[in-house]
Amino acid sequence: DSGVTQTPKHLITATGQRVTLRCSPRSGDLSVYWYQQSLDQGLQFLIQYYNGEERAKGNILERFSAQQFPDLHSELNLSSLELGDSALYFCASSGGDTPYEQYFGPGTRLTVT
Amino acid sequence: KNEVEQSPQNLTAQEGEFITINCSYSVGISALHWLQQHPGGGIVSLFMLSSGKKKHGRLIATINIQEKHSSLHITASHPRDSAVYICAVHPLQGAQKLVFGQGTRLTINP
Lengths: 113, 110
Fold this sequence. Notes:
The complex is a heterodimer. By secondary structure, chain A is mainly beta.
């Protein structure tokens, strides 16, 4: 158990809908990272937050947004969903802003039908 | 060409064999991770290293910064080592993000 929690575990929704994925980092960790793992693209970095502020952005679509709240949990919002958004979404946390060991959550499997 | 390349893509071996998975990258990095992903999907961080060698149990990771190459070794492999092993790097530019290799699927037969 990494100490990082993600909810929900599974999500099935229709095209055009909007969903919110939630992540709680390990106790004391200030950084949260979001990753997408699809069958054709592998693992890709989406976005990082550090202590409530956006720190780095990767290949995140404009239809996706994220935020980190004062209690350090984070949410990833996916809107106008397309079939290609079906993937595993992982959140990870680490203690700091510079490269640190990252602890991964169990992931949320999103299926868009 | 991907910034991070792993070889082999698939590896099948017999229990007890010594396993080596390689990772080459084309950018300057501040650190490199080896991750393990089991069939259930969960990802575990095995090592983070920026120089030299690290060992944990039967796992050994090495990195050569000058040659932009890292290896993950498994000694006395066991069927429970069957998983996908993923190499990921923190580029010097944009060090917060991770850039991932495509993974190596390892199967250890009893």
